[in-house]
Design a protein that fits this description.
By secondary structure, the protein is an alpha+beta fold. The chain is built from 15 helices and twelve strands. Strand 7 and strand 8 form a beta hairpin.
């Protein structure tokens, strides 16, 4: 019995030890999670802003993208047909089927609708600012101010927040989620709830220090390249300004130090005399020259800057042809580049911002039961429009659609004429059964 007791006693000791280890592991994991519950902005946030306002290449790309995106309007609609809404999302907004289903799925909101007023309140200047912040920092924080009293009760006003002053608060249990924001700026310091803030951000795979909850700036990815670009710019400027000692002039014969000093002063006086411009300078004795600095050709700064600029454009998915690249700026290349610009860079950011508005603002206007949404208008972007003649030829051959449906696809209003809602078939087409009996086939010679 004593042996059994000792055996069970050892078993209990092992189990207790395992339980203590698991408890210690849970405690350590809890401590790790607790450390990451306050997610601070990247230390490079302010540096990225400084880069935008001091590096001309970055400013050229970001300002072009932000101003182009801000010119694309957004409108509020009421969803009236869920089935057509699903079909609309399957097709491009510029395709014939996409246009057709959009007219069936949504209708314009009244001009006096408060959500329509909110959309109109987003001025061009505001949108340029929002997109610029997003392109620079990789994230955008907007505070939602809601007016509670008066004739404007329920109106939502957006205020941009300085991302470098925002701390994202994360829950301390799995699955972790954002539970609030700490903000300090202009005499304010406090905590905001998730419902008070719209956070638009690029995907960030970094898990160190909880940075996956913050947006990843393209400029952060370009840190090393920007360092080389700035170093190349500094070197070229110093070379152009003749900074430093370009070389050494020396006497090959045994001249005294006093003679060398006098020759230097004589040469300086000769250069200061404007009447000597273009005239040769006479000197006695044999002299030599040792160059110290490198020329721009030797440093290859210009070629490196071209490579760096291409990489900047690649990071922002920006076709560099659109920024005065003359090597391949033919009409067809520029037209294709403009389409790529909207498809790969402009529209993804607009959709990101639009989805944030749909999620963060539209529910605040849903108290009347109207189902609202936002769609962007691409009709004024020539690069994204299909050829009108090709569309007209395609519609002309689609006999199974009504004339009013064709008008919808081309952006025209429907007509009240009843015949415009009927399928019209060309007079030259008829059923094979209406052709009558088929004559017998006769063989040659019969």
């Amino acid at each position: 019995m004593g042996m059994i007791d000792r055996l069970f006693g050892q078993t209990k000791t092992v189990k207790n030890l395992q339980q203590q280890v698991k408890a210690l592991q849970r405690t350590n994991l809890s401590n790790v999670i607790s450390v990451s519950t306050s997610i601070y902005p990247s230390w490079q946030t302010i540096e990225n802003i400084e880069t935008y306002i001091t590096v001309d290449d970055v400013y050229s790309i970001v300002s072009y993208l932000a101003q182009t995106a801000a010119r694309i309007p957004m409108y509020g609609y009421e969803i009236v047909d869920d089935s057509a809404m699903k079909s609309m999302k399957k097709y491009s907004k510029t395709s014939l089927l996409g246009k057709h289903y959009q007219t069936k799925a949504m209708q314009d909101l009244p001009e006096q609708d408060k959500f329509n007023e909110f959309i109109r309140s987003l001025s061009y200047e505001d949108l340029v600012m929002y997109y610029t912040i997003l392109y620079i920092s990789g994230e955008l924080f907007l505070y939602k101010e809601v007016i509670e009293l008066g004739p404007n009760a329920g109106k939502v006003i957006l205020h941009p927040m300085n991302g470098q002053n925002v701390i994202v608060m994360i829950s301390d249990r799995f699955p972790q989620r954002v539970i609030g924001y700490e903000y300090f700026d202009a005499g304010f310091s406090g905590t905001m709830s998730v419902d008070d803030v719209i956070h638009v951000k690029y995907y960030n795979p970094t898990i160190m220090n909880g940075q996956q909850w913050r947006g990843l700036s393209p400029l952060q990815v370009l840190t090393k390249r920007l360092t080389r670009l700035n170093a190349g710019m500094d070197a070229s400027v110093a070379q152009m300004q003749n900074g430093g000692v370009p070389g050494i002039v020396y006497e090959k014969s045994d001249f005294a130090i006093e003679t060398l000093g006098q020759r230097k002063n004589d040469f300086a006086n000769y250069l200061r005399n404007s009447s000597n411009k273009g005239a040769p300078y006479f000197a006695a004795g044999e002299m030599g020259y040792l160059p110290l600095g490198l020329s721009l050709a030797d440093m290859d700064v210009s070629s490196l800057s071209g490579v760096d600029f291409t990489k900047l454009c690649n990071a922002y998915k920006f076709p560099e042809i659109l920024l005065n690249n003359q090597d391949s700026s033919t009409y067809n290349n520029v037209a294709s580049a403009e389409k790529m610009l909207y498809t790969n860079s402009i529209l993804p950011n607009i959709y990101l911002f639009r989805d944030a508005i749909i999620k963060g603002v539209i529910p605040m206007y849903a108290i009347d039961g109207v189902r609202r949404t936002i769609e962007i208008d691409l009709s004024e972007i020539p690069a994204l429009q299909e050829d009108m003649k090709m569309q007209a030829d395609a519609l002309n051959s689609m006999w199974w659609t009504t004339p009013n449906e064709k008008r919808d696809m081309m952006g025209f209003e429907e007509l009240m004429e009843p015949l415009m809602d009927q399928i019209i078939i060309d007079a030259g087409k008829q059923l094979i059964t209406d052709l009558g009996a088929v004559p017998d086939v006769t063989m040659p010679g019969e």
